[in-house]
Amino acid sequence: MTQLPKTPSFDLTGKRALVTGASSGIGLGCAVALAEAGAHVVCAARRLDVLQASVDAMAAQGWSVEALGLDQSDLGAIDAAFDRPFDIVLNSAGLARHSAAIDTQPDDFDAVMDLNVRGAYFLSAAAARALMAAQKPGSIIHISSQMGHVGGIDRAVYCASKHAVQGMVKAMAVEWGKAGIRINTICPTFIRTPLTEATFNNPERLAWIMDKIKLPRVGEVADIMGAALFLASDASAMVTGTSMMIDGGWTAD
User: Fold this and answer.
1) Is 121 an active-site residue?
2) This prediction's pTM
């Protein structure tokens, strides 16, 4: 009889996950995806009141969740969060301050780089350090952007930060692969969230977006959730140092 291959499991039962930026939008969607698959999810964000409301709604579904107030610019707080290892770390915390490159203010540049690059870098290092100390494998996932692969109008600083994350992830994947620690990015196009409504309400920007996206719609949070589950689970056991483009074909040409 032919021996059939077995589909890898997407089940996360028994796994501990940390999701940053989990109070709303993409971060909340990813937290829901991991919790629904059976993981115990620690949802982290700065806005503890908003975060707690989201965690309460998740707990009402019967999922295993808890809230953690975390400022990702505070490296001491990041280290303290890893008093024990997480099997999965998904970083959705991020910042965008858009302007023409010639008008960029140093304070805006520093703020974006501090969270998007510095925060992501040291969160990754803390996650890997804890996993190595426990001699455990794990999956680290960053919500990056299609703008980590292309340029965009009024987005020089944001693009710079996301291109930096892509390079960081490749180097970390090389360093940590032998320890069984995988690290990847998810690169969405424009996703409909409260933070992007201003962009979608600008007819000129919306026309630019719809011209670039090859599919006939913008992205929704649900479009990211499956990618997050895939990269968190054993289904992606051979995937590291790369990007999942959830961009509707933006980067196809």
Assistant:
1) no
2) 0.96
